[in-house]
Amino acid sequence: MVRKNRQIQILILLLSLAILPVFFYTDRYIMNILILCFIWSIVAASWDLILGYANVFSFGHIAFFVIGGYSSGLLVNFLKISPWIGILVGGIIASMIGLLIGLPCLKLKGIYLAIVTFSLLFVLPTLIVWAGPGRFKNFSTGGTYGLQKILPPSLFGYTFTRSNLIPWYYLTFVFFITFLLIIYKIIHSSTGLALVALRDAEPLAKTLGINDYKYKLLIFGISSFIAGIMGALYAHYFEAISPANLGLNVFLITLVMVLFGGLGVFPGAVLGSFVITFTNELLRPLLEWRLVVLGAIVIITMILMPKGLMGIPELFSNLKYYHSQKNRWGG
Fold this sequence. Notes:
Elements: H1 2-19, H2 21-24, H3 28-53, H4 61-79, H5 83-105, H6 110-118, H7 120-130, E1 147-148, E2 154-155, E3 158-159, H8 165-187, H9 190-200, H10 202-207, H11 212-238, E4 240-241, H12 248-261, H13 268-282, H14 289-304, H15 312-328
Antiparallel strand pairs: 1-4, 2-3
């Protein structure tokens, strides 16, 4: 019954999102934020597959997002392939690199795995700058300034441009719906059940024959693929991607989205992404203090609601029970 109610709530939310451009089509600022919500919510949800469900402390997820963006941008700009193929290949390349990194790294545990994967955010910018125009001319990453003028996708003769954000809204909305459904199916599949079993009772799960390394490597590759696809879509939307996308602020804000929504509770990361994306925009005048405020929000949330936004119903239920017991005993 609870699961059915949640499905109905998600359906109502999706239908509401589908008609939002009717009210905001003239407001480019709001439309841009909504598009970013679609992109970052899937990035956060795919990261939650690793952190929340697989219980793997991988902190290099944004690296796969950027790899997908650069891969698609380079292929489209220099090899002149279709942006649609570029987006798909960007996801595949991110997944392949994710699997190559996961093969040795997933044998590590806890803080050791976190440190190794987090180092990707420091190694990758160096490689991007090294592969700049000073070293490569016909296949350059753009160096410090990043890859610019990435060609946007076209569909039935129409080219998606930043001058009209409504087509971009519905394009990112389709990607959002598609990957939201895929992530939901993964969570409720045998793979998702195996991951939850390993997370909640690893010794028992292993005695039942669940291979933790196999399932964690599989989800590592899938989540890297999703992040790479969304990174490629992001690059084509902004027509640029740069080493700045690997900055610590991007990493922290995305992590805040996952934690604030609710770690390992679908669709917590999605809800958290929408709230934090809008909150982040409202806090822009605070400059570097923005991250301090967001950090404080997460700390307060984790203390009061360990399950994030998805823990609000449980919080109210506990408060209701507390008051009922208080009245019963005349407290």
